[in-house]
């Protein structure tokens, strides 16, 4: 049976259908989840997609963290279920305290829409279980507040516990330590700024995102 992956829709989300298509192309069963409903409908994993949840008022993810669906997301994460936040979803996870650190405005105060090169730093996470450490992936970014930051103690912890999931090879936004994605202590919750769902088909120029989403399916119990 294909794993059921819930993709949360906040007011202002705009990448939910991209995530659904990529997941289903890889053999998963995707279901849209409305942010106002705390019930996750027994999905096996959750994706918080990119966009501008609640218009990014106050700061990205600051309002979305209080949506009822986040009660279910937190419960799933606490139970060890895979949760992945992509771009705006990463911001929501950080605001909710499900991953460490925060996202601030890009270096140079410029919106970035380009393809970046990422290096896989660990395979011990819900998003990289099927990758190889050192793999270089071409994955697009599309953000204004993707500059990852944290205090020195948190950075030291992330390094020592192997919780930096992917790093930029050519840091586009000023993120500390070239960090593009991190995971929680349980390694089942991952936030990353690049968009793997936009790099899953030859027509878009890269299929490098497939290994990340395939890892999510495997983490959710699939045999793919």
Secondary-structure blueprint:
Layout: E1 4-9, H1 16-25, E2 29-34, E3 45-48, H2 69-78, E4 83-86, H3 88-95, E5 102-104, E6 112-120, E7 136-143, E8 147-149, H4 152-160, E9 164-168, E10 179-183, E11 189-192, H5 210-219
Parallel strand pairs: 1-2, 1-3, 3-4, 4-11
Antiparallel strand pairs: 5-8, 6-7, 6-9, 9-10, 10-11
Brief description of this entry?
21% of the residues lie in helices and 25% in strands. With 224 residues, the chain is α/β, with parallel strands linked by helices. The protein has one domain (4-219): 3-Layer(aba) Sandwich (Rossmann fold), CATH 3.40.50.
The low-confidence runs, each spanning 5 or more residues with pLDDT under 50, are none
Structurally, the number of domains stands at 1
Number of H/I helices: 5
The helix fraction, in percent, is 10-25%
